[in-house]
Amino acid sequence: MIAFPYHLVLLARRLMLAVLVITLAGAAGARAELRLDITRGKVEPMPIAISTFHGQAGSEVQVGRDIAQVVSANLERSGLFRPIDPRALIQDPASLHSQPRFADLKVINAQALVSGTVQGQPDGRLRVEFRLWDVLAEQQMTGLAYFTVPENWRRVAHIISDAIYKRITGEEGYFDTRIVYISETGPADRRIKRLAIMDQDGENHRFLTDGRTLVLTPRFSPSAPEITYLSYFNNKPRVYLFNIDTGRQEVLGDFPGMTFAPRFSPDGNKVIMSLATSGNSDIYSMDLRTRRVDQLTSSPAIDTSPSYSPDGQRIVFESDRGGTQQLYVMDANGGNPQRITFGQGRYASPVWSPRGDLIAFTKIANGRFHIGVIRPDGTGERLLNEAFHVEGPTWAPNGRVLMFFRERPSGEGNRSRTARLYSVDLTGFNEREVVTPLDASDPAWSPLIP
After folding, report:
1. pTM value?
2. Are 46 and 112 a contacting pair, CB within 8 Å?
3. Rounded CA gap, 256 and 242, in Å?
4. CA 157 to CA 170: how far, in whole Å?
5. Which of 46, 123, 179, 417 has the lowest tally of Cβ within 10 angstroms?
6. Which residues, including other chains, have CB under 8 Å from residue 234's CB and lie 6 or more apart?
7. Helix axes 58-77, 153-169, angle to 10 degrees
8. Of 367, 359, 338, nearest to 402 (Cα)?
9. Are 183 and 437 in contact (CB under 8 A)?
10. What is the pLDDT of residues 167-203, one digit of tens each?
C-alpha cells in the first residue's frame, strides 16, 4: 500500500537534524522592549525587516537567501508580521548582522530586524546564525546558531521562525510542523482518496498511500512519529497505525461494525473512536500496549467524534441523545456526560485545543456551515467563518491557529466539488489557503517536530 520509501527520506531528515543550538553572546541579558500582544481581538501586523543571511561562497549565498525568504513567508502568513521589502534595506547583509544602523531602519518604519549568516564548515555542515533586533530600543533581543547539513536548511528556517515568533509574542511557534491530510481526485461519485503529508507551508509534499483503497480521518500521535487513520479493506473499515519514520504500517483493529474517527490520547498510549454495532454508534478506547478495548458510552443515540482534553481527563464528543446533534463533555472513563452547546443549529467534529481553553467545532445552521470555538464549559461561542461547506478543524500545536477544509460547488450544474485547505487564527481575520497539488480535505496538524 505504501507508494514510495518515504520513511527513508524522513529518517534521513531526522538524522540530519543533529542541530547544535548556541545562544549568541549578548542575547541572554538583553531586555525585551518589543512585544506583540496576540490576546487582543485583532492585531495590527508588526513591520519587520528581514535581511538576506550573509554568505561568502555561492552555495552559502543561495542558502542565506532561501532561509530569509522562508522566514519572511512564515511570519507574514501568521498575520502578525508585515515583512518590509528587503530592497528598502540600505546596509549590506554582513554589516546589518554585525552592527545595524538603527536610524536607517527607523526611517523605513521597521520595528524589528532579523539578520543572519551562513558559513560552510570543514566537515561539510553549515553554521546558520540569526539575530533578532529591537529597532526602537536599539538592542539585540535574541541570537542563536545552528549546525546542520545543507539539505536541512528549510527546517532550520522554520526553527528560526518559531524562535522569532516566541520571542516577540511570548507564545510557542508552529512553523516546524507537518500536516497530514486526504488528497482527492476524480469525479464526485468516484473520488480517489490518498493519504498525503507535507510541511505546514505546503513544501516537501509526499503521498503516503497509492489510492487503491479509500482512506479517511488521519490523525497525528502527540508523542511518536505515528499517524492513525481509517481505511477500507475488502469494503470493511480498518483502523491503521502508520509510523512516519520507519514506514511500518499495522492494523490496529478489524472491528465487526463501522468504525469512525480514530484519535490518539494526549500521551499517545490510547486511541479513541466510535464503533457502530447493530446500527448504534458508541465511543470506545483502545490501549495500544494491551489492545484492550473499553466501551465509554452506551446510549441509543449516535455518539461519535471523540477528542481528549490535553490533560487526558475529559472527552468532548458529538451526540444526538438530546434529539439534535450537539456537543457533550464527559470524564475520560465515560462518566458524567454534560451537554455544552445549546445554540441554534447542529454541532459536529469537536477538537479540544492543545492549550485546553477552547474546543473547535463545525456548526450547521440555516443551511450554512461554520468553523467555531467554544469554552469547555459551553460559554463564549464564536464563529470564525461561514461557507457552503467547511469542516474538519485541527489545531496548530500552540492553540492559536486552526486549519480546516472548504468545499465549493463546481462544474456543470454544480454537480462537482472542489476542496481546499485553509488556516485561520482565533480572531477569524487572517484566513489563508494552504496550497496543495490536488483537492484536499480532513487535515491534521502535527505537534512541533522533536
Report:
1. 0.90
2. yes
3. 21
4. 19
5. 123
6. none
7. 40
8. 359
9. yes
10. 999 999 999 999 999 999 988 788 899 999 999 999 9
